[in-house]
Amino acid sequence: MPRTPLLSDLTARARTTAHARTTPCPCGATTTLTDRPDGTVVRHEDTVAKAHAPNTDPTDLTARLTTAARLPGILLPPLDPTPLHLHDRLVTCWPYGTPVDPEDPDAAPWEAAGTLLARLHRTPPPTPLPPMRGPLKAVRAITRLRAAGPHPAATSVLRAWTLLPAWARAEAPQPDTTTLCHGDLHLGQLVRHPAPDGPWLLIDVDDLGVGVPGWDLARPAAWYACELLPPDEWARFLAAYRAAGGPAVPADGDPWPALDVPARALTVQTAALAIVKAVTAGRPLDEVEQAVVDACDRMGSVPPELAPGFAK
Q1: What angle do CA 273, 103, 93 make, to 5 degrees?
Q2: Which residue, among 41, 37, 64, has the nearest Cα to 53 in the 3D structure?
Q3: Across-strand partners of 191?
Q4: What is the DSSP string of 194-231?
Q5: Which of 10, 56, 167, 300 suits 45 as a labelling partner, its CA being 20 to 30 A distant?
Q6: Dihedral of the alpha carbons of 206, 210, 212, 213, in degrees to the nearest 10
Q7: In terms of Cα–Cα distance, which of 45, 54, 61, 36 is closest to 11?
Q8: How far apart are the C-alpha atoms of 208 and 120, rounded to whole Å?
Q9: Cβ–Cβ < 8 Å for 14, 43
Q10: How would you write 17-46 as a 3-class SS string?
Q11: Could you read off the pLDDT of 154-181 as tens digits, one per residue?
């Protein structure tokens, strides 16, 4: 695939920043970590440069970067809290951190994830922030599903979507407007810094904001409800979050009343994107994709307030 001007200039930016930080720089190859319409990320040695999604609001992004810079024990701090402009995109530079190894699921840092989330949720925002963008990401997934054309699984996903409360569909303000949230928590959002074996930190501030903290627990909760996350891993994550005083769920007892709506929303989002990918590739749903669609089908038959754990 030919390199775009954005990717070429982003690579040059990463290289220049790395050379300014490390003397002498070993100067290995620059690696493209991600190249999608909503974000392009490249790495040169100990520096990562990211071009954020088109139309990213510069004021909101600066507030998110400032927050990360002021919470260095929770979020990976940017090298500069002021974004640059490159090819009509906002660009930020970050120190490189070692990510979670997808080939070693037994080493997944569930305890670290739960502890970091609890600390984030307990920290007052150090600067005014926009709403956490989790519900907006769910809306985008549904929009893509509707644009993908007919699919036999789409009906149950769209029905489950209509049963969610308005705030979870970004049609009303979130019921919590003060709690600091990540907005898109999954294991890919943790890195060790300094690499390779420093403490775990949260990365990716694009969805950072104030809102319902249960949204940050929703993806592992949804995986658990869909039987895609083993119960012991879910228990480790939840126990670590509670031990660190996380406010999204009660300190003991059933956490599901606080997590059911966000977990349903993340399940719908995941199922919608799964169908879009299958349609684009011209293939049937795989086993995991079918599991989240089946969960939507169950969710569509029972209202959220009556069915802890998607009536699993």
Answers
A1: 70
A2: 37
A3: 99, 201
A4: STTTS-EEE---TT-EES-THHHHHHHHHHHHTT-S-H
A5: 56
A6: 70
A7: 45
A8: 10
A9: yes
A10: HHHHHCCCCCCCCCEEEEEECCEEEEEECC
A11: 999 999 999 999 999 999 999 999 999 9
